[in-house]
Write a structure and sequence with these properties.
Layout lengths: L2 E14 L2 E14 L3 E5 L6 H8 L8 E10 L2 E2 L5 H10 L1 E4 L3 H4 L6 H13 L3 H14 L5 H4 L9 H13 L5 E5 L7 H18 L2 E6 L2 H7 L2 E6 L2 E7 H6 L4 H8 L40 H5 L5 E4 L2 E3 L6 H7 L7
Parallel strand pairs: 3-8, 3-9, 6-7, 7-8
Antiparallel strand pairs: 1-2, 1-4, 4-5, 9-10, 10-12, 11-12
Helix pairs in contact: 4-5, 4-7, 5-7
The chain binds iron/sulfur cluster and magnesium ion.
The site of iron/sulfur cluster has 14 residues, from loops.
């Protein structure tokens, strides 16, 4: 498959009284054309910061891009000026967020907001833009789009508003859509409909999706590849099949056990990994997951584990994959 986005060693931080505190640490991910990569982890793991850094919006959020590269279609976005980035964000990369209401302007009809985007990116006249806006509303599954186009955001449900936001994103014909928890604020039925819509649109126009979610169930449905993030770092990465059939980091195992009804999940009771993500600048020594890990060994508190290859195109950052250490610990693969 052809690579669209290749992030290498992306390290970001924020300035605190104690100096620079890292928010993400050497993030590396690859997204192929027409595919979906899910970045999964609990809130506070650095998923959103990663996407803001890719889009170069982190500067506006008070953060710093400290190190690394973001190759998009062979060009390094970290070397672009903000003016060049504005054009890339408007024409090639679109972003949608959790709360559709905050992305929409309450004083303009939804049709006008889509039309405005079309005028900007596709040089259309007013009438052409309006007609295309109505077509986009139809495309994102809004019934009676001619009537809906004239309505204001507060007249539409949350799910309808997220469809409008997706329509605005499509107005720039993006090759890459970054979707940050796009269904988290919606009720379960509507969630499923929006995910279906994203999948259909992807097949239709061939865009790639970087989907950020805390929900392994969403990743199971949507992802070609999954990257699991914990406390600012990728701890496991692989194809969706590999991640679900052979989870190889104890954190991933914990996330899978928290899916209701998933094989290996602990009955009806929602299993949550005990403890919480350490705050920025409060990482433990050694493996960043060691205070919460049911398998933590001495070496885990002393030395950061390297990234082990654990299968075909599948990696995990965990000492249990060092053969000698694993055998001393359990005599077998102790991850499960
Ligand atoms: Fe757990 Fe050690 Fe693996 Fe970290 S390196 S996840 S503490 S077993
Ligand atoms: Mg977030």
């Amino acid at each position: 498959a052809e690579k669209l986005l290749e992030v290498r060693d992306l390290t970001t931080g924020f300035i605190s009284e104690k100096g620079i505190v890292k928010a993400t640490d050497r993030i590396s991910i690859t997204l192929n054309k027409g595919q979906t990569l899910c970045l999964v982890g609990e809130s506070g793991s650095g998923k959103s910061v990663t996407s803001l850094a890719i889009m170069r919006l982190i500067d506006y959020a008070g953060g710093l891009l400290l190190e690394g590269n973001v190759n998009f279609k062979g060009e390094d976005l970290t070397k672009k000026s903000q003016e060049q980035m504005r054009s890339i964000r408007g024409n090639q990369i679109a972003m949608i967020f959790q709360d559709p209401m905050s992305a929409l302007n309450p004083v303009f009809s939804v049709g006008e907001q889509i039309a405005e985007s079309l005028r900007l990116h596709q040089n259309k006249s007013n009438e052409e833009a309006w007609n295309a806006a109505v077509e986009l509303l139809r495309k994102v599954g809004i019934p009676a789009p001619e009537i809906r186009a004239k309505q204001y955001p507060h007249e539409l449900s949350g799910g309808m508003c997220q469809r409008v936001v997706i329509a605005i994103a499509l107005a720039c014909n993006p090759e890459l859509l970054i979707a940050d928890e796009p269904t988290t604020a919606l009720d379960v039925t509507v969630q499923a409909q929006i995910l279906d819509l994203l999948r259909e649109l992807q097949e239709d126009i061939g865009m790639s999706i970087l989907l950020i979610t805390h929900d392994m169930g969403v990743a199971a449905e949507m992802a070609d590849r999954v990257a699991v993030m914990y406390a600012g770092a990728i701890v496991e990465e692989g194809t969706v099949e590999e991640i679900f059939a052979n989870p190889s980091h104890p954190y991933t195992v914990g996330l899978l056990q928290s899916i209701p009804g998933f094989e290996g999940s602990r009955g009806e009771e929602l299993y949550t990994i005990k403890g919480s993500i350490p705050g920025l600048g409060q990482l433990p020594g050694g493996c960043r997951f060691n205070p919460r890990c049911p398998h933590a060994m001495d070496i885990c508190r002393q030395q950061e584990p390297p990234n082990f290859s654990v299968g075909s195109d599948h990696h995990a950052v965990c000492w249990l994959h060092e053969k000698n250490i694993r055998e001393a610990h359990t005599g077998e693969n102790g991850v499960k």
